[in-house]
Amino acid sequence: QIMGNFTTVTGFLLMGFSNIWELQILHAMLFLLIYLMALTGNLLIFTLISLDGHLHSPMYFFLKNLSFLDLCFISVTVPKSIVNSLSCSCSISYLGCVLQVFLVILFAGSEISLLTVMSYDQYVAICQPLYYETIMIKESCVRMAVASWFSGSVVGAMYSASTFSLPFCGPKEIHQFFCDVPSLLRISCSENHIAVHVNIAIGFGFVVFCCISVILSYGHIFSTVLKIPTIEGRSKAFSTCLPHLIVFIVFIITGTMAYLKPPLDSDSGLDLLLSVFYTVVPPTLNPVIYSLRNKDMKTSMKKFIAWKTNK
Predict the structure, then answer these.
(1) Of 124, 139, 275, which Cα lies nearest the Cα of 213?
(2) 12: closest CA among 128, 144, 101?
(3) Residues 87, 137: Cα–Cα separation, whole Å
């Protein structure tokens, strides 16, 4: 019977942002603009760090990983949503939905891990500068980056496997602009979601661990920064750390709310808003916050533009 349930659903229907054609076009144009901004910013950072030897340090190695991660993360959901809005088609295949759930969780989990690693890197740079070169050696940085990607992959595999082990035999409309676990649970014709809830608990534990690590890192960072005698030195350190902390907090809070809030039977605009905040906003803002405001990145960009002009 369960196998029959699996075969009856060959695809799903994603929810659009509006039923009005003009608003659908507006949504598509807005998402396209945001996607192009994210694409340009993250590709620029990835290219600059790859080409400029002066940026081959641990901090920029993690920034390069973050840029590639953000590029992948936003590419999983936004292009499909744009195409659906322009074509007036809301369909996604069963396999496409499985892949979307796996990749969204993979990149979200990897991003949380990488942001945690980056906070540790900042802690060592600010609080233990004399030991920085011995702690943050190339091998350690590569291991931490691989661990970030691996943890995201494991969580993504767990979530997608447990979610799609459930039978889908009823409504195909997912109340979201991409396939996500809470929306799929609402349309499953099984009441037994224990495996998924166990995975959500594991994921929540993983997020709590990352949050505690970030809080500890920033607690030490802020106590060290406050001891800097000059106002200019303190403001420079805070301007580097605070935006990172704000994006991390927004990403964690919106993602956690989306997965832990009680499911609603009716369509909720809050679901769409929360999902935009954790899938679209961080990849778009990260290039501006982490890199394009950075003095070394600006210098590298000027050199790159000059090199392209004189070529």
Answers:
(1) 124
(2) 101
(3) 50
pLDDT value at 19 more than 50? yes
Lowest mean pLDDT among 63-77, 219-233, 256-270: 256-270
Q: Are 218 and 119 in contact (CB under 8 A)?
A: yes
Alpha-carbon distance of 132 to 138, in angstroms, equals 12
Residue 152 has pLDDT above 90, yes or no: yes
Distance, in Å, from the CA atom of 2 to the CA atom of 125, rounded to the nearest integer, reads 55
Q: Can you tell me the distance from the alpha carbon of 3 to that of 6, in angstroms, rounded to the nearest whole number?
A: 5
Residues 6+ apart with CB under 8 A from 119: 213, 214, 217, 218, 244, 248
pLDDT, average across residues 234-261: 78
pTM above 0.85, yes or no: yes
290-301 as b/e: b if 16+ CB within 10 A:
bbeebebbeebb
User: What percentage of the chain's residues is helix, strand, coil (to nearest 5)?
Assistant: 80, 5, 20
- C-alpha 14/C-alpha 177 separation (Å) is 5
What is the distance of C-alpha 73 from the center of its chain? 6
Domain spans of the chain, in order of start: 2-297
User: Which of 65, 23, 73 lies closest to 46 in space, CA to CA?
Assistant: 65
Give the residue from 303, 247, 196 showing the smallest Cα distance to 70.
247
CATH of domain 2-297: 1.20.1070.10
